């Protein structure tokens, strides 16, 4: 059975209903607005905040004393392509002499 086509997009908005009149402010509202704008233009000092950035991925700590110095990834000592022991932890191995 064929899948039905997606629904048609909604009609575009009509701007004829938008409020285009300039807002009128009384004296106290205007004074408060002017005070706020003057504080902003003077560079008002902001309150210090503390940010707890948790956007970095959580990595598990390596278990035990891992040989090869690789942290996580694919393979510990020689990777997938062999290459013997030694350095190159986390690499895919292959290509160089073993132990380098």
TrEMBL record:
Pfam families: WH2. InterPro entries: WAS/WASL-interacting_domain, WH2_dom. It comes from the Eukaryota. Residues 65-100 have a biased composition (Gly residues). Residues 25-100 are annotated as: Disordered. Residues 32-49 form the WH2 domain. GO terms for molecular function: actin binding. This is WIPF1 isoform 10. It comes from Pan troglodytes (Chimpanzee).
């Amino acid at each position: 059975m064929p899948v039905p086509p997606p629904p048609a997009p909604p009609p575009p908005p009509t701007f004829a209903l938008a409020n285009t009149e300039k807002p009128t402010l009384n004296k106290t509202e205007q004074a408060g607005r002017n005070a706020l704008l003057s504080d902003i233009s003077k560079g008002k000092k902001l309150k210090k905040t503390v940010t707890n950035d948790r956007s970095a991925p959580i990595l598990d700590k390596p278990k035990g004393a891992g040989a090869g110095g690789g942290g996580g990834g694919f393979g510990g000592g020689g990777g997938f392509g062999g290459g013997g022991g030694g350095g190159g932890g986390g690499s895919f191995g292959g290509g160089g002499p073993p132990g380098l």
